[in-house]
Amino acid sequence: MLIGIDWGGTKIEGVAMEHDGRELLRLREVTPRHDYFGCIRVIKTMIDALESQTGRTGSIGIGIPGSLEPVSRLGKGASSTWLLGRPVEKDLHDAIKREMRIENDADCFAASEAMDGAGAGHNVIFAVILGSGAGAGIAVGGKAHHGPNNSGGEWGHNPLPFPDVTEIPGKACYCGRHGCMETWVSGRAFEAEYASHTNEQLKASEIIEKKRGGDRLSTLLWDRYVDRVARGLATVVNSLDPDILVMGGGMSNVEELYQDLPRELAKRTFSTVFYTPIRKAVHGDSSGVRGAAWLWKS
Ligand SMILES: [Zn+2]
Fold it and tell me: For the chain, where are the E strands, in sequence order?
């Protein structure tokens, strides 16, 4: 069987899966935030539990909330900052003492949707996560795509393209830059923008409900949100022209995205036509853990 672990910033999830994708067992724990070795202990315990409860041994794939520097193999680009500069691969090996494959969580998401999700049958997939953070992964021919810097899909830290004067320099990002896509198009950013106008902390889903009820501010903020996502993705279409855009994370559950985003993207791309399908991820929150398990699919 295939074991997949999704090491997330808020939860660590594990799955034991057959080679055809059928799930045998799923386990979930709260992430011990800022406790790096605590996270590794949770992962080790979870793998043991998946194997003892199924009575089987599995291959091990782990999706991490960051990537590995390709030469030193140290953690980099992680919103879960307690991974930065850590020898993640070595420490996981020392704890688990087994062969394993490790990938960026957004790459796992892309690979999962490419394998048997919204991207199935498409060659080049750009998978976008609009969740508590924002990021992306690229899959080509069903596998996560890597470059020499292990940096493919670090879309969340591109600066917002075509900024107007109110968008410069933009908010500070945890990565040390300003105005990264993540600071504009994450669900948290959408909520923060609403709060900045109203002093009212609503969840994204509550703001969307207000918009559906005809609330003017919520409608304006939604339109601005979609425009920013479109600006961010226009540069992707202009550079890579993927066969499909797959949307994940909490904001991908807003149905209006699939009517509004294609129209706004069409205005922003260089091409005079825009045929790219934009689809909601099939496996939703489960894509990370399934993609990690698929790392051993030959
Ligand atoms: Zn950033």
Answer: 2-7, 11-17, 23-30, 59-64, 67-68, 75-76, 101-104, 124-130, 134-140, 143-144, 244-248, 278-280
Record the pTM.
Answer: 0.90
From ligand 1's centre to the CA of 72, what distance in Å?
22
Tokens linked to 201: 């902390």
- How many angstroms is it from 18 CA to the middle of ligand 1? 37
- pLDDT tens column, 24-79: 999 999 999 999 999 999 999 999 999 999 999 999 999 998 889 999 999 988 87
Residue 9 pLDDT exceeds 90: no
- 6 CA → ligand 1 middle, Å: 22
- Close Cβ partners of 147 (under 8 Å, ≥ 6 residues apart): none
135 C-alpha to ligand 1 centroid (Å): 10
Residue 185 CA to ligand 1 center (angstroms) comes to 12
Domains and CATH numbers, the chain: 2-108+285-294 (3.30.420.40), 121-281 (3.30.420.40)
Q: Say how far apart CA 278 and CA 90 lie, in whole Å.
A: 38
Dist. CA 75 → ligand 1 center (Å): 16
Q: 273 with 263: CB under 8 angstroms?
A: no
Distance (angstroms) between ligand 1 centre and the Cα of 176 equals 6
